[in-house]
């Protein structure tokens, strides 16, 4: 098939009850079928069709990827990049982040439970995360 859509040809035209998702990897087209509850593939050139697995309940979309040895270095792979929770590897370098509900400290690597704005360290009660409202006299 050409980039403009010309040169198309039918690879499979029978026994396709309910295709849901499909993906392309190398010389194969893979698809899921809701009715047959299967993952199948067909070779783009030889048209050889194969059932990869069948009788899978609740089968939905599919994504095929090459699984191979990775090359290069990712600073987040070693000690989570020095981050307590989330390490984001960006072209500019490592950046730490926090999940929802946590706050990044001034060291830009440690996440903590945020202190309520109504409280100050002077009014902290015993315990690492218990705070009471500030009162004025």
UniProtKB/TrEMBL annotation:
GO term, biological process aspect, one: nervous system development
Alphabetized InterPro entries for the sequence: 6-blade_b-propeller_TolB-like, Cueball_EGF_LRP_Nidogen, LDLR_classB_rpt
Protein's recorded name: Low-density lipoprotein receptor-related protein 6-like
Organism whose genome encodes this protein: Carassius auratus
PANTHER family, per database record: LOW-DENSITY LIPOPROTEIN RECEPTOR-RELATED PROTEIN 6, VITELLOGENIN RECEPTOR-LIKE PROTEIN-RELATED-RELATED
